[in-house]
Amino acid sequence: MIEGAVTIRNKEFFPLQDIPCLPLHKFQVALSAGLAAGLFLAALPKLYGRKEKKEVIAVLRHDQRRRLYLLRTEIPSRWPSLAREFPQIAPFERELAEESGCVLQDHPQPAPLRYLPQTGTAADEAGRYIGSQSFLQAEGEEMHEVAVGPVHAGIIEPGHFRFLCHGETVFHLEIALGFQHRGIEAALRNRIPDQRMLMLMETLAGDTTIGHSLAHCQALEALAGITVPERAMDIRAIALELERIANHVGDLGAMAMDVGYAPTASFCGRLRGAFLNITAMLCGNRYGRGIVLPGGVGHDLDEDRIGTMVDQVKKHFIDVTEAATLLWNTPSVMARFEETGRLSRKQAKDLGLVGPAARACGREIDNRVDFPTGSYRHHRLPVSVWFTGDVHGRAFVRWLEIKRSVAFVLARLQDLPGREEQTSLGRLPADQCIVSLVEGWRGSICHVAVTGPEGEIRTYKVVDPSVHNWPGLALAVRGESIMDFPICNKSFNLSYCGHDL
Amino acid sequence: MIHSLLARYHQGSHTIDYPREPAPEMDARYQGRPIIDQKRCQGQECTICLDCCPGAALKREPTGLLCIDMGRCLFCGACVRQCPRHALSFSRDFRLATGRRDQLIVNGVEPPTDVRLDQLRRKLFHRSLKLRQVSAGGCNACEADTNVLGTIVYDLGRFGIGFVASPRHADGILVTGPVSINMKEALLATYKAVPEPKVVIATGACAISGGLFRGHPETLAGLDEILPVDLYVPGCPPHPMTILEGLLQLVGIAPRDLSKE
Q1: Which of B27, B136, B190 sits opposite A281 (nearest CB)?
Q2: Considering chain A, what percentage of its residues have pLDDT values greater than 70?
Q3: Does A489 score more than 90 pLDDT?
Q4: N or C end of chain A: which has fewer CB within 10 A?
């Protein structure tokens, strides 16, 4: 379909040497053709551990055909940017330039994405350090800038927001991240997968522990050629959906809080914890640390535990239903939710938004359906879509997903297949490239792994859904009153550490 | 209006009565304070647990005793699963916080005891402690479990403890994360903006020792590299009860009474 590209499926590995290395112009023509045809850029990882050459792979996603396309080229010293034509590529080009040292030509926002610190200092070779970025400016009467962060008012991760305002109206928002950079990808390179690597995945974004550890384990299992028992697959899916429910419930509460609606805010604050506690019944940890292991799951469930979990899910779902229904039936809440932070379907598509943010704009994309793995191959979930693209849309899609995930969790809990022996991970094959997709609660999680000659990890690229969606938030607040920023921000609820790695 | 009142009635009250009543029981799979049975440990020649620990939390003292540094422990349970003689286990005791770094290194069975502020600060903060939270490379798990203390279940406000928006309004900072290089400056500026006298709380394995990220050039190895820490709250992430109990210890509400056990 795309000239020069290799076609693979989710979790299907392919020998790295068989991906043709295209000349730059051919690579860019093929990439542009793919993006113009409606494909999505899932990742743009630089290949490490190849001293003689600096190379990059583009991973494109075709949701309807359920295929992934890989393109490869050598990184030039000057990279002609495609971001003006295809905005979704902008953060990936910034990442590539930062990691490979190439210069972006004609990029709308050529600042580093994360400000990778050199040892001991926060400045890179060009003398840029975090906070040194120059922001877009405008002059005129009543024009002013509002700078927020990196330390925010609540208990939340750090990031810097620069609003360009005219009176109370936001003309433009620039988001500068990187404060959370912990060097996770660098720590994964040239290592044989082990417990520590798994834990780095679990702490990539603490609220997406199961999503990221699942994407990681899927990739390793596929590389090693081992099968996961059906029972373990179901327990993983239950864990992933519990993570989704807990976070979505928390988000509904947080959105209610930001419009000053105390009842739902306080109910959902408690109920989020209740669902985290159900996750803790799986493994002892509220965030699901230690559930997903390469080859299966860390803990099994007995009848007693299953019974208690079913009762708890049912009980708390009644309370969640009540709390959510209050939102839709309270005019003062809906007045703030509706028409606020609106994105069109086209904007969502151009920016490459994923997850509930995209589905709220009518984009029918969901990795659980488009690229199903594990239990989702056998048990289809409906894709929860809404059409308004505003704060209400993002809240309502979350509510639809909560309902469907609860039904899924209950069905799977009550119909767990019998026990089977789990296989452990053997040696990984040499010089292979694999892509693993999972639908986390924020959206599409993409892990790309490339192995070296000893079966060690040479390159590991993590793309958290937040990388796709941060630009969406910046666009959503344009033209809005600055006082609506908190509610827009909560309606996306993006990860800082998942972005900064 | 009537719907929200009916909902309020139906949702009921969920605030725990801790510390007057015992805390709700932890799940059987919860991994709290680690316990080492030295009699079962094979001693010097066995290094299984030392090798499998992803946080390098286990050490053998020169005396031959096995000890575990709760400030580095990620509570993953790898050592418990791998020890052939079942010398290691995790209890369901969530009381892990302490004021002294060395007290986190345990080789026996007692929980750490020493959480003590000086007279002046205890007197000042006993009935009102306002904190500014700073995430410096935290993964949002510690942050979320700190945030939870504000919900109706824990209702932190009833102890006079709360989180405020500005460091100028705060009596101290509660830090999560290993302190990423990129956040170091902002963290120090926040600390500086808090008026004296102040307290510093390190929450989670990362903030205490760098945790999983210890040794990364992109992060420091924990908060006490740059600031004096008054309270260490171990865990990855610590359970909300661990954080709550630690805060109550710090301000002198409901001190641990170990003699009753």
Answers
A1: B27
A2: 97
A3: yes
A4: N
| Each residue's pLDDT tens digit, A128-153 | 677 777 788 888 888 898 988 788 88
Report CB contact under 8 Å: A206, B138: yes
Range of the domain at A379: 229-424
Residue A227: CB atoms within 10 A of its CB come to 14
Cα separation of A373 and A221, whole Å? Answer: 12
Q: What is the pLDDT of residues A386-410, one digit of tens each?
A: 999 999 999 999 999 999 999 999 9
pLDDT of residue A473: 94
| Angstrom distance (rounded) from CA B244 to CA B253 | 11
Mean pLDDT of A169-198: 90
Nearest CA in chain B to A267: B11
In a domain, A197, yes or no: no
Cβ–Cβ gap A203/B212 under 8 Å: yes
Going A72 to A73 to A78 to A81, the CA torsion angle's sign is negative
Residue A268 lies in a domain: yes
Of A280, A114, A431, nearest in space to B241 by CA: A280
Cβ within 8 Å, pair A326-B74: no
Q: What's the topology of domain B119-255?
A: Rossmann fold (3.40.50)
Is A325 within a domain? yes
ipTM of the complex: 0.90
**Average pLDDT over every residue of A468-479:** 93
In whole angstroms, what separates CA A218 from the centre of its chain? 16
